[in-house]
Amino acid sequence: MNRIMAIGHDVVDVGAFGDQLRQPGSRLSELFSARERRQACSLASVKNDGQALHLAVRWAGKESVLKAWCAALGHRPVPYGIDDFPWPQVEIIDDSLGRPGVYLTKELNDLLLSSLGICGDVHWLISLSHDGSVASAVVLLGLDDPGFSDS
């Protein structure tokens, strides 16, 4: 990442989020990809805590992605709002070492690049945290420089 374009941050009340997940007829879990749900379930089992905690922190990550995208647009039109954003197309997934990452479907990534007027690629950095009843995420959206190598 050569240039930071925008930052996004979000905080989620884990208890309220868990209550929403458990409400009869709630479609909140459908806003996560199957991989996110599987990973949250696995982490909850390993850490002996609730799946809602692991989904809540990923929800904070997803909201942070949308906020960073909107911030990067500046005064340009925003392609999505909170009610029509394709939430399952943004995955907040840990890699094999437990490091969280942001992964967009190709379709959504192409729309992101187009909306920002970028002929290249962007890079996401994310930090997730939870303590007690609060889950938080910070996301940086950066522009990749094709001439830059981090090796």
Automatic annotation (TrEMBL):
Keywords: Magnesium, Metal-binding, Transferase. Residues 6-110 form the 4'-phosphopantetheinyl transferase domain. It comes from the Bacteria. One of its GO terms (biological process) is fatty acid biosynthetic process. GO terms for molecular function: holo-[acyl-carrier-protein] synthase activity; magnesium ion binding. The keyword Metal-binding applies. This is 4'-phosphopantetheinyl transferase family protein.
